[in-house]
């Protein structure tokens, strides 16, 4: 089918909830994608921070093919081998205690919120617990996840949302303290805000929130769905802060393309929250998804992905900083490792994204004025150079 026919068919039958870019992607190789007309794109979007290993990784593809031929789905009524192994790897990488596998990031957030409310309920038997979330955050589109997403534009048409949510200013400890009441059961935040515009948590802020949580037995939920899995140069972004969450959420690069998420609990939370009957999912933790997770962790280890991100991430930062120096309309670079944003002033960031696409480069936006880069973690310095060249051409 021709590109325009494919686009027309989608628009005719698929509910219009996205304004898609006029590109029909067909296949990928390494860090490059190809559209149906054979045009090549250097991919600095990775399907929104998902495809960390690049396209066509043989080990990954073969592991999935083998699992498809063996067993794809069982339900959670029975055990399967990949689930335990994927869980073990996630626990060892995080130093936390127990995992619940979901099918998306949003569902991981739902589970984290439920675990936090159950923890508080077991403590005092009350059912009016509050959760503090951050302005400009993004945690997903379901009613629970949307309720803790600090963006009224996303929320307003869907009210009433779940109750007991209070919002604070990210990177402002006093503003978090001001929202604490005797009913507070959790604080939820992204370690690096993604959709909101690439804002890393300040170390003093995150440590201050952690201290506050410990003092009052409030659970700290860190959303690592976008910034986790090696993207910032450590397996999970919080590991650089010396601050451990009570609950962590993962998704996006966790399965590198197979839909899978997880919420991960520390010992205290695992032992005093969800029990049989409290939470469930038909697909969650299925053998295919968990074979993907298991293989992703194996490849991360074998190919030293995190170390690679530290090196190439530092190089990307340096090249982006030079752009900010050079162009007046670039106000700032924000980010860590391979989650980077350029703040664009005085012209629409969307136009640059479209121009870049014409020049064979995929980048995306965040917030209203940020050019976002979340490339596959396997990009090389030469790919960074090529990206800079294509981006400058698009300015
Ligand atoms: C993408 C994202 C989510 C939602 O994940 P889905 O897989 O789209 O449901 C939640 N939190 C953060 C930080 C995200 O980037």
Automatic annotation (TrEMBL):
Residues bound to N(2)-acetyl-L-ornithine: 141, 281
Reactions mediated catalytically: N(2)-acetyl-L-ornithine + 2-oxoglutarate = N-acetyl-L-glutamate 5-semialdehyde + L-glutamate
Swiss-Prot/TrEMBL GO biological process terms: L-arginine biosynthetic process
Residue sites binding pyridoxal 5'-phosphate per the record: 105-106, 138, 223-226, 282
Pathway membership, UniProt: Amino-acid biosynthesis; L-arginine biosynthesis; N(2)-acetyl-L-ornithine from L-glutamate: step 4/4
Subcellular location, record wording: Cytoplasm
Gene Ontology cellular component list: cytoplasm
InterPro entries in UniProt: AcOrn/SuccOrn_fam (IPR004636), Aminotrans_3 (IPR005814), Aminotrans_3_PPA_site (IPR049704), Class-III_PLP-dep_AT (IPR050103), PyrdxlP-dep_Trfase (IPR015424), PyrdxlP-dep_Trfase_major (IPR015421), PyrdxlP-dep_Trfase_small (IPR015422)
Protein name per its UniProtKB record: Acetylornithine aminotransferase
Source species: Candidatus Fusicatenibacter intestinigallinarum
């Amino acid at each position: 089918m021709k590109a325009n026919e494919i686009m027309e068919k989608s628009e005719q039958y698929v509910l219009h909830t996205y304004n898609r870019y006029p590109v029909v992607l067909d296949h990928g190789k390494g860090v490059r994608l190809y559209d149906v007309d054979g045009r090549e794109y250097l991919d600095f979007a990775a399907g929104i921070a998902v495809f960390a290993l690049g396209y066509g990784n043989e080990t990954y593809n073969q592991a999935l093919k083998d699992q498809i031929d063996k067993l794809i789905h069982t339900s959670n009524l029975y055990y399967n081998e990949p689930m335990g192994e994927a869980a073990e790897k996630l626990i060892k990488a995080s130093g936390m205690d127990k995992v619940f596998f979901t099918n998306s990031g949003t569902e991981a957030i739902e589970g984290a919120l439920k675990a936090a409310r159950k923890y508080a309920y077991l403590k005092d038997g009350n059912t009016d617990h509050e959760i503090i979330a951050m302005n400009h955050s993004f945690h997903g589109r379901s009613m629970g996840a949307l309720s803790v997403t600090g963006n009224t534009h996303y929320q307003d048409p869907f009210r009433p949302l779940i109750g007991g949510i209070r919002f604070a200013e990210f990177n402002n400890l006093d503003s978090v303290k001001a929202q604490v009441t005797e009913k507070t059961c959790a604080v939820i935040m992204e370690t690096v805000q993604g959709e909101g515009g690439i804002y890393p948590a300040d170390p003093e802020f995150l440590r201050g929130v952690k201290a506050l949580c410990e003092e009052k037995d409030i659970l700290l939920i860190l959303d690592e769905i976008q910034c986790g899995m090696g993207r910032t140069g450590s397996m999970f972004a919080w590991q650089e802060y010396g601050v451990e969450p009570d609950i962590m959420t993962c998704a996006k690069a966790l399965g590198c393309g197979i839909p899978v998420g997880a919420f991960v609990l520390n010992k205290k939370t695992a032992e005093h929250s969800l029990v049989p009957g409290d939470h469930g999912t038909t697909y969650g933790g299925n053998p295919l998804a968990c074979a993907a997770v298991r293989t992703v962790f194996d490849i991360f280890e074998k190919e030293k992905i995190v170390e690679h991100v530290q090196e190439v991430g530092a190089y990307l930062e340096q090249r982006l900083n030079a752009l900010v120096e050079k162009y007046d309309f670039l106000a700032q670079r924000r980010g860590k490792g391979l989650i980077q944003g350029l703040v664009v002033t005085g012209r629409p960031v969307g136009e640059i994204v479209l121009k870049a696409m014409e020049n064979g480069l995929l980048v995306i936006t965040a917030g209203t004025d940020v050019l976002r880069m979340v490339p596959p973690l396997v990009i090389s310095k030469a790919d960074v150079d090529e990206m800079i060249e294509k981006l400058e051409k698009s300015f």
